[in-house]
Amino acid sequence: MTKFLIQYGIVLVIFFAIDMIWLGLIAKNFYAKKLGFLMAPKVNWIAAFVFYLIFILGLLVFVIQPALAAESLTQGIFMAALFGLVTYATYDLTNLATLKDWPLIITIVDLAWGISLSVIVSTLSILILTRL
Q1: Given a cut of 90, is residue 104 above it in pLDDT?
Q2: 3-state class of 99 per DSSP?
Q3: Does the pLDDT of residue 5 top 90, yes or no?
Q4: What's the DSSP call for residue 26?
Q5: Which of 82, 69, 132 is nearest to 124 (CA)?
Q6: How many domains would you assign to the chain?
Q7: Residue 96 belongs to domain spanning
Q8: Which residues contact 110 (CB under 8 A, 6 or more apart)?
Q9: How far apart are CA 29 and CA 27, in angstroms?
Q10: What is the predicted pLDDT for the residue at 23?
Q11: Listed residue (32, 52, 30) closest to 108, CA to CA
């Protein structure tokens, strides 16, 4: 259990750092411009934190640990891309299908980001965890 919690903590820190750079610096104005009409005045940090906890659990259980067990960074990268696509598509394609005026460009950018974020976080995590 201790090993799992250490792995989880490492993935959490990497994920949070990268996603905060994306959301806070790189894409902040993009989302505000495209989704400003839907955005809450304040972030619901509890909901955001719960998302992080669940998403990181999924990355660790379905992507990172199997790649570590197989000693295959390639497997980790491929599965991370697939995991990112599936998880972000669930949110974005549901919104595109059900919400009035949901911008297609948001779906496209989010899918690319979900894949990229999952691959970057998983790759860094696998590289770090193989050295521990």
Answers
A1: yes
A2: coil
A3: yes
A4: I
A5: 132
A6: 1
A7: 2-129
A8: 88, 91, 92
A9: 6
A10: 79
A11: 30
